Amino acid sequence: MHYLLPPYFYVPSFFKTKQEEKVIRQDPFPEVDTDLFTESAQTFQVLMQDAEKIIEKIANSKDFAFHVMDAAQKSEHDKVKNLINSLDISHQAEVDYNPDNIRITLLAQTQNMDCCKLIMALHW
Predict the structure, then answer these.
(1) What pTM was estimated for this model as a whole?
(2) In terms of Cα–Cα distance, which of 121, 107, 122 is closest to 44?
(3) Do 87 and 73 form a contact (C-beta atoms < 8 A)?
C-alpha cells in the first residue's frame, strides 16, 4: 500500500509576513515595585529580634530551658506555648515539638497579609 503525502516546504526563520510584523510584543512581567519587598524585609528584622530574645533566654537560662523541655515531655502544649510567648516578643510564636526537637515559628503581617515567617528548629 502506498500513501501520498503532501510536499513539505521550507520557510526560512527570517521570513516574516506582514501580519507578523503588526504583532506587538508585551513584557509578561509586571513593573518592578520594591515597596512590599522592603517592607517585608524590615518586618523580618523585628522577627529576627524576637528570635534572638527566645534563643538568648534558652541559651542563658537553664531553668527556662528545663521548664520548656519538661512541659514538652509531659505534652503540656499550652504551657510550652505560654512559656515562649511570655518572653518580651512582639509577635505570637507557634510552637511544635517532638521527642527530638522543638520548632518555633514566628509569623508577621504587612498590609494585612502574611509577609514573613521565621522557623527555628532546636534539637534536644
Answers:
(1) 0.71
(2) 107
(3) no
pLDDT (tens digit, 9 = 90+) per residue, 13-33? 565 555 555 556 677 888 888
Q: Supply the range of the domain harboring residue 77.
A: 35-123
Residue 102: φ, ψ to 5°: -120, 140
On whether the CB atoms of residues 68 and 87 are closer than 8 A, the answer is: no
Residue 111 lies in a domain: yes
> 93-97 and 101-110: which strand pairing?
antiparallel
Of residues 63, 44, 45, 64, the one with CA closest to residue 54: 64
**Structural domain total, the chain:** 1
Is residue 40 one of the residues assigned to a domain? yes
Nearest CA-CA partner of 94 in 57, 122, 103: 103
Q: What angle do CA 38, 39, 42 make, to 5 degrees?
A: 85
Find, among 64, 63, 70, the residue nearest to 97 by Cα.
Answer: 70
